[in-house]
Amino acid sequence: MLQLSGIKKRFGTIQVLHGVDLEVNAGEVHALLGENGAGKSTLMKILTGILQPSAGSILIEGQERQFANYDEAIAAGIGIVFQEFSLIPYLDAVENMFLARELRTRFGLLDRKAMRKRAEDILARLEVDVPLDVPIRKLSVAEQQFVEIAKALSLNARILVLDEPTATLTPSEVEHLFKVMRELRRQGVAIIFISHHLEEIFEICDRITVLRDGEYVGDCLVSETDNDRLVEMMVGRRIENSFPEKPSIPQDAPVLLNCQAVQLRRGGPVSDFVLREGEILGFAGLVGSGRTETALALLGAYPAAKCALQVEGEDIRFREPADALARGIGLLPESRKEQGLITSFSILQNISINNYGKYRRGHWFLDLQKERADTETAMQQVRVKAQGPMDRVDTLSGGNQQKVVIARWLNHQMKVLIFDEPTRGIDVGAKAEIYQLMRAFTAQGYAIIMISSELPEVIGMSDRVCVFRQGGIVATVEGTAITSEDIMTHATTGRVRHVA
Amino acid sequence: MSHNTTTAEAGRAGRAFNLRRILHSPLALPLIGLIVVSILMGFASENFFSVSNIMNVLRQVSIVGILAVGMTFVILTGGIDLSVGAVMALSGTLAAGLMVNMAMPGWVGLLAGLGVGVSLGLFNGAMVAWGRMPAIIVTLATMGIARGLGLLYSGGYPISGIPSWISWFGIGRIGIVPVPVIAMVVIYALAWVLLQRTAFGRHVYAIGGNELAAKLSGVKTQFIKLTVYGISGLTSAFAALILTGRLMSGQPNAGVGFELDAIAAVVLGGTAIAGGRGLILGTLIGAVLLGILNNGLNLMGINPYLQDVIKGLIILLAIYIGREW
Question: How much is the average pLDDT of A18-26?
Fold first, then answer.
């Protein structure tokens, strides 16, 4: 039915896909498996015409096809349901399904009856019952997903891509979705199913293709493999030696942060952990497992249902990050452009944004000379490569931008730094520099929480690792137990603790 | 940018690049606009460059000019304040009412007027910062409330009979310079210090540049937002003081549409409507530019209806030229 071979893709100097193959048969549910950043999403964007491959071919029913855009891929019978739905929240299901290709009557008016009839037919084919008269936003996530699937089918999709469809569903909704998928399989639709949950793959899928770091690792029948084999295929054997040596942390090192209970959503799992002076605590887990939200909740930047926190033995709940800063807790956010930097501002303005308290003259006024001198010192400390402090940060490379965000915290009496994906989108050299900086911080007595989706980084840098799944910590590993297999197993199959 | 340009490109684009750099100063275009319009007006009317006419223009500009100071703070954070004209009217009306109807001393009335302005501004700020409502809606509502309260209190009529010394604020002079002009200059100077020389000012820019980044790095974004709307209320009240002094009465109907003039002054001055970029001096230039247009078109005897059309077109043109700085 569908055959992708030798697909390569590069963005600028970064090769993200190194010749990937994928073969899917009609009437088959095919799992696409791999760690975060393995290239699954990029491959699916190429299949759906959103991105163009640098090399390789796409064959549909034996015919070579090239898609210049999404619409051409749809016309060729490919449908995709993204993680983020593309439905208009205020329109109802029928209006959404026929958006931009509404059926018209002879007089050019909307043919509401005909559209409704078609929608009902398709949903009946899925054997689901979705209310058609209420705005989409009032439907459950699962129902919205069915509408997305129905929309794809109304476009005669014979190849359906489901990108992590179960990530936000309850167990009973997942069951319902699987029922729909089985029905579609019976009707001969080829389904590509992306999920991080191995038990789901064993339940629903027929075949599996595994990607790792943009490489094709292999494919196999579900019936001929098991959990451990899959995990090994996903993480592989990698040698990484750009990490500084781990110091030994004394068992009685003072606890800087004692998070007694954090619960992201009411009724969700409750997690706890401690952070000791001088250590790097890794937060591992798949995208959407609640790592970032937990970290933001500590700072008062995410409205968690519950967050009982002790800083150096004192009960505290921060209302906003400014309060956390006052107690020496700072954040290097996940997205440099959206959360870290003010891109149209200079390096100086970005570094001194939370440092003005130090540049006072006559209580109210800024000491511009001191601001500049301190900024230059901070830039040297983290080795920002730029012409000067007045360069705009959007002219810098990713690595240098990240160093600017780090430099912001140097002038404070910090105790805890939260690094969220500190090396995302950064070249190898700058990565090593950031790792060195992190160890330099811990040597000064800081403690670092490092959230990372790169397993080698988690393993190479962390003294202990909290593994997240479905909104909570499912395991904490340390010492020699920090292995890819261990972390991956917890991240894909661990059980979260629910507390009423 | 410059270090990315290859030498070949640099040679070709050298002159254009320099020109762009000059134009890159946010003040360059407003200043060019001001000069061009002044010269045109000078040709059109020989009276234009006389000292008395210049003082006259500045005096006319002063009220909108002062409103535009608060507006600049608000717009720099990425917000907007539609209530400034109505708040000004309410502040002046209540101040006059206290003096005339309640026989309070003049200074009590003036202080109360300032208090009203600041309170309404802080109300706006609280609604935007903690109520998480869009500024355009909050201040639209406040505009209606303030206008309505002023009309209710006064029954729709001007309140006159205030102490005569208050006229000094509106029509007094120090040397040849009208008091409103001096007040305006002082307020701009204070605003400049606040924006360019204090941490508060930097945080105002940071919020407009990227509110989330500012918040996550420890800026008290909600407090700063509260304050900028408070400042806008305060400058509205100062404008009310000058207006009351000039008209020698509290005018519940005054200032209709002034919010739009103030916004126009800010934008003509090169401040990005989305916030984060702009200079208070630009707003002063923008306000004076608007004033000169009004004055010059009057001197030329152009039909007032046509004047509005011309002003609108000039604002559009200016913003078109100045987009994407």
Answer: 93
